[in-house]
Amino acid sequence: MGTKLMTRMGDGTAVEMTRDELRTDIEDGVAAAVKRAKVPPLDDGEIGHLLEIFASQERMTGVPAGDEVVHSCDGSNGLRASRIDSLTGSEEGGSDLCELQQQDYSYKAVKTVVASEQRLMQEAQYRLTIPVQYGAQADLGRYSKPDGPCPNWSQLLPEGRIDEARAAQEEAAAESEEDMVRIGEAMWEAGTDGMNFDTSGAAGDADFLAVLKAVRRLRDACPDMSIELGMASEFVLGMHGELEWEGVRLAGLWPVDQLRLARQAGATIFGPAVNINTGRTVAWNVARALAIIKPCMDVAEIPVHPNAGMGVCGVPMHPFPPIDAVSRVSRAFIEILRVDGL
Amino acid sequence: MRTAGDLVMRLQMTRGMRLREAKAYVADKLGVPVRDLSDGVVMQDVRSEFGIGRLTELENECVGEATAMEAKFNIAELLDVPINCVERFRDRVRSLRNDGAGGSS
Predict the structure, then answer these.
(1) What is the CATH number of domain A5-337?
(2) Which of A83, A104, A165, B45 has its Cβ near the most Cβ atoms within 10 Å?
(3) Chain A contact for B19, CB < 8 A?
């Protein structure tokens, strides 16, 4: 029996495994990606590299000097300090980019307070040197009753009222698109460096379509605007099922196809996301995420920043993910996929 | 801003440049090797030299250092990238001058 090595589960708890068990776990993670996402497997060299990263027993790991990547983010504001102070704290802490956000993190909620958000953005731009973007989610569910004006497709679908559910989603997507465009233009007027459409597709294909349409309109209206499009989960749910963007059906799209559409629409940065399985190890989850996202790196014409935050792309689902796990996830993405940022 | 990540980020944000290309571009503009872009000691001096903003620990270090807007004017010129708030600031000042407002009597 081999030496036991400390590693982590997807919920952050520490476990011990042998080197052989770790390798088997990594191979299982790759196999799970191949089966689920129909992607090519990682090659033997990549699997070996990942094993070395996870078998290392240093508290933290990292990349060689000069191989670092930039760090983007979704939301830089906490509840314990003013939002401007939180942004300056991010700058002093070493962030390469920070993001002004409203606590609801929903463009529908921002719509009603956009004037005060503009003023804050203007103030933030006067106070910070690093880029400051504005971010929120399309959050399409908020447009359905009782929170919003549209019929609730989550109630209609179980009743078999498919056409009504589809019409409701289309109505909500149109409302959402208008809100995102109006807010994007308002924040541009206030001096933002860019807009972040985070968790795009969280409510399914209609949610994703609304974001693509908003991105296209903002790109046309504001050619110099940075537009980051971040994914919601590893593929687009077909809550509608028939929606298309320029002839491409949106339901079921995996990261590489989402990247292509994001680029076509006019996004500047793409943030792929892969869900974490808390019952498997971090090594298994990272192996799976690397294999699912790797096809993006072969075709990317814009920077790709995988979402390596809590509960995504292998980072443990814990409010304070352990640094040993986070540093291993980061190093794996940088060295094996050669990502442009995290 | 401890190093040069914000500058590399601006190339990604405004030109959609991939990482390797963006790092090489920034290093060339600053006249340093790529490896120095992430060296906080080197970049502290380089950032001061170019007036592109740097973190300061003590208040008396701040005297004469570029403020955020001044730094962003210099970054836009150095990297030849558009910075939205800089252009709006410049337009706003120009507009006030043309209107005859805000000037000394």
Answers:
(1) 3.20.20
(2) A165
(3) yes
